[in-house]
Amino acid sequence: MRLWFMGSGRFAARCFLELSAFLHFEVVVVPPPKPAGRGLKESLSPLEEVAKAGYWPLIRARDVNREPILLDMAQKEPPDVIVVVDFGQRIKEPILSAPAFGCINIHPSLLPAYRGAAPIQRAIIDGKEETGVTIFRLVNAMDAGPILAQRRYPISPDETAGQLCEALACEGSRLLLEVLEGLSKGSIREEPQDESEATHAPKIAKEEALIRWDESSKRVHNLVRALNPTPGAFTFAHGKILKIWRTSLADGICGKPGEIVKIEEGRPVVACGEGGVVLLEVQQEGKAPRDAASWWRGARLKEGDVLG
Q1: What is the pLDDT of residues 95-123, one digit of tens each?
Q2: What is the pTM of this model?
Q3: How far is the C-alpha of 73 from the C-alpha of 91, rounded, in Å?
Q4: Which domains, and CATH codes, for the chain?
């Protein structure tokens, strides 16, 4: 098969690493670098970093639907499949219909559940115990195309979004290989999505990362692991941002929401609206992440102080 790959983020990069061990991609399409940091230095997307390391042919496209090189390639030597993963650009005509088998996406949810940019984070925030991956063909509507294959995957109680991203990228890549083989043999049957079952997973807004200690301990714990490794759930200590990277649930905790009620094995236990959480790993503003016990020893806080 003649294959192209389009993507951008961490999930795309991991999928590409898995797939490129078995497949040859004629071109890898990525968005242009974005300025980042105080010096506004150009920051490459995770996929571009991986593709450059492997010396894959790259095309940067601000809009794939108008990129002259891609339009010319699609007309003269159209691919059989364009694999589109975690890309952030809507694929339109004529690119959408250029491949013989269409544009095929790996999506980290059991569609039609969690359509959108943050399916992994939203599933964890919602406390789901199961998710999965879906291979589907792109259409004009977002994440609404016919399903080619699906596979379920359990979510562990303490699993972070980063860990689940890695697992689903591996699982999805293996499933895509099966789909490509099926397409070449004519054994794949498309199944339309049930629109009545559709739910959405929009990008995480900055204000959503603020921990609301009046919520249940399970909700707080889920938020922390959903926003690890990015952007990080946060609270305030002494008026400065304190990111919380890892927690564990603590039973039988009573106190004012956000109150440090006790120290357990050197780590602070914080009360929530219901129950509490043990802080395991934190990051003080301007500092590197560290074990919460180490942070606590120099934090100038005491039992009874309130975070937030």
Answers
A1: 999 999 999 999 999 999 999 999 999 99
A2: 0.95
A3: 16
A4: 3-197 (3.40.50.170), 206-297 (3.10.25.10)
